[in-house]
Design brief:
Keywords (chains A, B): Amino-acid biosynthesis, ATP-binding, Diaminopimelate biosynthesis, Kinase, Lysine biosynthesis, Nucleotide-binding, Transferase
Largest interface: A-B, 38 and 37 residues
Organism (chains A, B): Myceligenerans pegani
Family (chains A, B): Belongs to the aspartokinase family.
Oligomer: homodimer
Radius of gyration of chain A: 24 Å
EC number (chains A, B): 2.7.2.4
Structural class of chain A: alpha/beta
Catalytic activity (chains A, B): L-aspartate + ATP = 4-phospho-L-aspartate + ADP
CATH architecture of the domain at 3-262 in chain A: 3-Layer(aba) Sandwich
């Protein structure tokens, strides 16, 4: 008997009908002999509606009150889901984040989980009942006030509970079939990725794949919680995220499938893209020690997370160089203001801001042992007639920056070049290797 | 400096604009030098919307889940009201029923308050801040689960907090100007009652006056909490409810007014009416000892609260009698079913059910020392050509049952007969005495 934590997002419980469908999935998992703990987000647009209400009331509401307000959404969905599950003859009880023992720090609006003490959840599953927990929320352990976890909060709640309970798998139910080799809206031949390591999933999530919150993947890796990203609509197996390819086991797979679990690492997992960044170029920076460091110090102090950096070779004739870096578009104004403040100190000539860039990232655990991946990537982009403006790499990722309006073409070209296209729409487990 | 507990109902916080208006009232009370604790209901139709959702999900939802669901409404309104109050420069923090220390039994859906331990509320007001508390909810002290208090729950929360905190007054803000001598929709000349005792208010509330929940008045009487029922729209003084006429002091009144506080009891406070009852008549009951007792035993066991009872004189020729009683209309079907089950045992002849009745109640603390009140009441109803079907009395109340379609005329006739009409719409403090 496995202990399964299931997480359902807001689109999976958008209305009464959807709530009932989710309850059926819960009942199936329970009737299959599993212990089941469910984490649920607020229904559909509830959170947006509450944000609208708050905006009508106050331009700058206290964060503590904002958190109390927003957590009402998950209380509604958890209670309704518990009702729907009971209605199917499966005993279920709902719990708020505080009741589930999700203890956080006091950073209202973006609290970090500091501990999980799920006594009541454990008692509930020991009685053979399903525990349904409100995602996205916890309790400030010093004040006994409710907190919200910020972006990706419900995924993180699910992973944290799975870790705290020692669950066999954490199933993330969503409105897509799993993690894909590329965004199917851009690449119609994209295939579902059956298995991926934490490291690859981290790189994909950090590079723009939205299906899983980066923070939840980090948490899962730290505690070794296997994730299963799947559709709440189709019920088909989705994407398994785990430590290595070998130890991934789908608890719902028939026994025959498990023979295939240990397989060679695939070269490439997928191609992610990201349109949310902008580029700042500082021109004419004096080529003196410490000047680049000073620039990034100032930008970091403005609150921006710098992603890629390119420094041109200094022109010997001028003794000056250009430094470009990318950052989230929304951080642009404050970073520019911070740089303007140190113009005289640094002695640069000019600032340029460009929000018409796109980033493509090729991710794959196998690339570290296969030379020639970069060359093939650059060749594919060149053959598509697209200019590469910046490059950065990690052990298992290569990212390039292009013009925003060339990004889709670049993604399609790279997807094809690495043999990721599914000719007939059929899912193939592993992408083409280095051949 | 007074400690004031203010309660705002759902119609007072129906939308963002109303929430802001309530925040202004709170700010005024605070700036006037009071310590302020606020109890708030769910916004407008929120609770009905949640009930609708639940009905779409399950025909018989677990009561625990229903309570968690419904309490979301007050969490939303309390957080929004705290935001709006902070926005006016008054520090305010919101608290759920559990956080406010409202401890209840485990009767989900209709929990009784067993204790109030408002440590956090006290700390908040000691810091000079306003505490805003979700009404209608508490915590099952054995399970740490949220409960709802049922009908009149928010009024009761306010009174219980006022008692627990030793507040000087509990102000019940509502969408009418106070308690009236009759329902102004039926009697346009009805006047606002300035002062009324707990006993009279209890009789009025039990007789159909909807402005205050009976339960909250009982609680206020038990703990001696002065109530002030007033409009959240006009801000004018409303109706004070307290132990005796003498000890009623309006904390907002100028000092000069207090000289008049000790006054003679008025004869009549008002005329209440109630259309929500039905009458069951059991005909041909054998005139043997214990038969009436058995009938009421059976009806009580069916869950019905019996109100008025009339037993006809037994006809000597038959040795049988008719017994009529009134009960809430909704309890009719189960009471009838219970009576049918004992037809052979009791040996009655027939059952009659009549939901076309109306009840008029005349309430006044002064009537116990003034003879002739009943005679004047019956005379007024007779002169209006209306038949009286049943009569019951307490020390300070006389109730009669009429046909439902004669009730409004009866209310107007009695209101006039006791000199309660306000000729020019001007409020007069005390009704005419026994002259």
């Amino acid at each position: 008997m496995a202990l399964v934590v299931q997480k359902y997002g807001g689109s999976s419980v958008a209305d009464a009908k959807s709530v009932k469908r989710v309850a059926k999935r819960i009942a199936e998992a329970k009737r299959a002999g599993n212990d089941v703990v469910v984490v649920v987000s607020a229904m559909g647009d509830t959170t947006d509606d509450l944000l609208d209400l708050a905006a009508q009331i106050s331009p700058l509401p206290p964060k503590r009150e904002m958190d109390i307000l927003l957590t009402a959404g998950e209380r509604i969905s958890m209670a309704l889901l518990a009702m729907a599950t009971n209605n199917l003859g499966i005993k279920a009880k709902s719990f708020t984040g505080p009741q589930a023992g999700v203890l956080t720090d006091a950073a209202y609006g973006k609290a970090r989980i500091v501990d999980v003490v799920p006594h009541r959840i454990r008692t509930t599953i020991e009685k053979g009942q399903v525990a349904i927990v409100a995602g996205f929320q916890g309790v400030n352990r010093k004040e006994d006030d409710v907190t919200t976890l910020g972006r990706g909060g419900s995924d993180t709640t699910a992973v944290a509970l799975a870790a705290g309970l020692g669950a066999d798998v954490c199933e993330i139910f969503t409105d897509v079939d799993g993690v894909f080799t590329a965004d199917p809206r851009i690449v119609p031949t994209a295939r579902k990725i059956h298995r991926v390591t934490y490291e690859e999933m981290l790189e994909l999530a950090a590079s723009g794949a939205k299906v899983l919150a980066l923070r939840a993947v980090e948490y899962a890796r730290r505690y070794g919680v296997p994730l299963h990203v799947r559709s709440s609509f189709s019920g088909a197996p989705g994407t398994l995220v785990s430590g290595t390819y070998g130890d991934l086991i789908d608890p719902n797979a028939p026994d025959g499938d498990k023979e295939e679990d240990v397989m060679e690492d695939p070269l490439i997992s997928g191609v992610a893209h990201d349109r949310s960044e902008a580029k700042i170029t500082v021109t004419g920076v004096p080529d003196k020690p410490g000047m680049a460091a000073r620039i990034f110090e100032v930008v970091a102090a403005s609150g921006a997370n710098i992603d890629m950096i390119v420094q041109n070779v200094s022109a010997a004739s001028t003794g000056r160089t250009d430094i470009s870096f990318t950052l989230p578009e929304g951080s642009g104004p404050s970073a520019l203001a911070a740089l303007r403040d140190v113009k005289d100190e640094v002695g640069y000539e000019n600032l340029e801001f460009d929000d018409q860039i796109g980033k493509l990232s090729l991710v794959g655990a196998g690339m570290k042992s296969h030379p020639g991946v970069s060359a093939r990537l650059f060749g594919a982009v060149r053959d598509a007639g697209i200019n590469i403006e910046m490059i950065s790499t990690s052990e298992i990722r290569i990212s390039i920056v292009t013009r925003a309006d060339s990004l889709d073409d670049a993604v399609r070209a790279v997807h094809t070049a690495f043999g990721l296209d599914s000719a007939d729409g059929e899912a193939v487990v592993y992408a083409g290797t280095g051949r």
